[in-house]
């Protein structure tokens, strides 16, 4: 399908180009994670994801025991634009090379 | 100036103006306009803008500029606990840099057109 | 150029891309301009007017007399005059030359016209301000007469109440115009090269948790419980002799 030139990975963003229309994992600031199908991106890593699962992790300290209580909230979003400046990490799907 | 999508840059102030649909215009390569043109097609539709301070605003997308600053109208549901004052507001203007993400209408733009526009932008960038 | 070559040679099998700009770095670049501050730099006789930074291209866009200002939950202060330049909003007391506030458009996150008397007694321009420490936005000041700098820097809401409510739409439009004149300062290295490749961690026996992209059904909450993925990756790279450009990541890692 893709020509050799198109599938070559030279720059970090090439990896993302090859992930178009595939499910990726995105870690955002403020302990948020997203998984969704990549439908669009630009060089700032602004992205549009489809069928997104968002996971928000919050850590609270118990008043009495001082133990950390980790809570995760999940929600699904059909279609989502993500601003690139909040992106910490992007993981394309694992592929055999 | 591209005649297909009626896109041009005003030489006096460098402001990009678009009249037609440019997301599917093949002349536009590497202008960093992918998301601006995408959002232009969503004007009039309902979106939920979530800010980095966790405030979420569900509203009609009224307009946006070349930096993706967003103007919303007919604000519906917000997070009243954190910013009770937001309930009284119908229209507001949001600075692009404070946006975390925007929930979009799934029927907004054809996925294939979006993929093609993304590949064109990636080649030009 | 040598750096770029070094990075390219580093490319082998990898499946993670990491942002070059983490919170602290950006915050420190912008620390000088965030939030509301006192403004007393007036020129001219009598009550005077604000001194603009014309050397830096600051120009007056609009003057609106008869405006009260309400910062956070403090009571409104008046009478005053609103000066809007292409860079910032300034409110100057009409009676006290030493009283005034300024906020850069870069710090104004959101602005709107508010006309609902139930949430605020007078129609106003409502703004949200990006403050230095937004976590303290519930902070309540005790000294309404003269909020100190540390209080000002925590304020996340500002209301501007013009005596003539018919001016609200004009002010709203001027604010829109001015926000557009103040895009985010460009981050120095905006090249795609500044994104960092991660190693393909699936070969690393010590890090079995890295298989995040292999199995998308894997509950990610467990993977990330108290494990900071990004920092661990950065550490791995910094310790890697083959990577010549570790300095930038050192910076990023000091957050």
UniProtKB/TrEMBL annotation, chain A:
Top-level division of the source organism's lineage: Eukaryota
Identification of the protein by name: Sm domain-containing protein
Family: Belongs to the snRNP Sm proteins family.
Localisation per UniProt entry: Nucleus
Coarse class of the protein's main subcellular location: nucleus
Keywords for the protein's UniProt record, in alphabetical order: mRNA processing, mRNA splicing, Nucleus, Ribonucleoprotein, RNA-binding, Spliceosome
Gene Ontology CC terms, in alphabetical order: Lsm2-8 complex; spliceosomal complex
Single GO term (MF): RNA binding
Annotated Sm domain residues: 11-96
Entry-linked PROSITE patterns: SM (PS52002)
CDD domains to which the protein is assigned, alphabetical: LSm3
GO biological process: mRNA splicing, via spliceosome
Function: Component of LSM protein complexes, which are involved in RNA processing. Component of the cytoplasmic LSM1-LSM7 complex which is involved in mRNA degradation by promoting decapping and leading to accurate 5'-3' mRNA decay. The cytoplasmic LSM1-LSM7 complex regulates developmental gene expression by the decapping of specific development-related transcripts. Component of the nuclear LSM2-LSM8 complex which is involved splicing nuclear mRNAs.
UniProtKB/TrEMBL annotation, chain B:
GO biological process: mRNA splicing, via spliceosome
InterPro entries assigned to the protein according to its UniProt record, in alphabetical order: LSM_dom_sf, Sm_dom_euk/arc, U6_snRNA_Lsm2
Keyword terms of this UniProt record: mRNA processing, mRNA splicing, Nucleus, Ribonucleoprotein, RNA-binding, Spliceosome
Family the entry assigns: Belongs to the snRNP Sm proteins family.
Protein name stated in the entry: Sm domain-containing protein
CDD domains: LSm2
Any one Gene Ontology cellular component term annotated for this protein: catalytic step 2 spliceosome
Taxonomic superkingdom: Eukaryota
Keyword Iron-sulfur carried by entry: no
Organism in which the protein naturally occurs: Dendrobium chrysotoxum
Ranges where the Sm domain occurs: 37-104
Record carries keyword Ribonucleoprotein: yes
One Gene Ontology term of the molecular function aspect: RNA binding
Main location as per UniProt: nucleus
Subcellular location: Nucleus
Automatic annotation (TrEMBL), chain C:
Key word Transcription present: no
Biological process terms in GO annotation: cell volume homeostasis; chloride transport; mRNA cis splicing, via spliceosome; spliceosomal snRNP assembly
GO cellular component, one term: cytosol
Keyword Repeat on entry: no
Primary location: cytoplasm
InterPro entries documented for this protein: ICln (IPR003521), ICln/Lot5/Saf5 (IPR039924), PH-like_dom_sf (IPR011993)
A UniProt-annotated Pfam family: Voldacs
Protein localization: Cytoplasm; Nucleus
Domain of life: Eukaryota
Keywords: Cytoplasm, Nucleus
Protein family: Belongs to the pICln (TC 1.A.47) family.
Name of the protein described by the UniProt record: Chloride conductance regulatory protein ICln
